[in-house]
């Protein structure tokens, strides 16, 4: 029995700590290369959110909430939404069509090409990554406090 | 009061009538707008005008500049779909945040 009952074993914690950066890098890679290789904003965003969820599983709510602040993630989520709508409006200004593909087209297959598609991928990736992470963190916060209240109620009843 | 009700009822009837009239202008159900039939082996398969547009323009990666045709359709041709999906996620996060915020405030009050 460890001191902190909400944490998993040392092996799980170490592996989660080692894999955290690698999963983040892989998620960012999938988001940024969305217009060249399979994947994109949604998929890469979920991979990035998974890194936070893995930490949450290994360290528990109390270990993660001091490192990951859901207020900042919520702001990132809104920022991604605003970026996405603004990029749609850029198409309206340029060609009178919402979500028109404008800006630098470049050579197909290069990283900087395809106009607004990679920028939209980044916006959606930001939105999905922070959105899914916020959902899981908020729900674990709710679970933590409801457990705390239940415990307090039980103790009150015993007294 | 009766006047307001009459105005509301007539507005509902008008909107319903317009929507119902719009149904008759829709494309017939079960008959897609096929423009070409392609023979492959023994079987024919058909593509609609929209499919043909996406396949022809998307596979050359000239119009969108994206070699990933899925990304080209999601963020360029069908941007509205992605907007809807993003809104769904936004609503989910807003709902979850609104639901669990009360518990945290109650904890601060103690």
Helices and strands in order, then pairings?
The complex is a heterodimer of chains A (159) and B (110).
Chain A: H1 10-32, H2 41-64, H3 70-95, H4 117-158
Chain B: H1 2-25, E1 34-40, E2 43-48, H2 49-59, H3 69-77, H4 79-109
Antiparallel strand pairs in B: 1-2
Features:
heterodimer; A: 159 residues; mainly alpha; 4 helices; elongated; B: 110 residues; 2 domains; two-stranded antiparallel sheet; 2 strands
Written description of the protein model:
The complex is a heterodimer of chains A (159) and B (110). By secondary structure, chain A is an all-alpha fold. Chain A has one domain. Chain A has helices spanning 10-32, 41-64, 70-95, 117-158. With 110 residues, chain B is mainly alpha-helical. Chain B has two domains: 1-69, no CATH class; 78-110. Chain B is 68% helix and 12% strand. Chain B has helices at residues 2-25, 49-59, 69-77, 79-109; strands at residues 34-40, 43-48. Classes of the chains: A mainly alpha (159), B mainly alpha (110).
Distance between the termini of chain B: 49 Å
Percent strand of chain B? 5-15%
Helix content bin of chain B: 55-70%
Q: Which stretches of chain A are low in confidence, meaning pLDDT under 50 for 5 or more residues running?
A: none
User: Radius of gyration of chain A in whole Å, from Cα?
Assistant: 20 Å
State the order of secondary-structure elements of chain A, H for helix, E for strand: HHHH
Tell me which protein chains meet in the greatest interface and how many residues each side has: A-B, 47 and 31 residues
Give me the strand/helix succession of chain B: HEEHHH
Shape of chain B: flat
Spatial strand sequence of the major β-sheet of chain B = 1-2
Question: Count the strands of chain B?
Answer: 2
Oligomeric state of the chains present here: heterodimer
**What structural class results from the helix and strand content of chain A?**
mainly alpha
- Work out the number of β strands of chain A: 0
Structural class of the secondary structure composition of chain B?
A: mainly alpha
- Tally the helices of chain B: 4
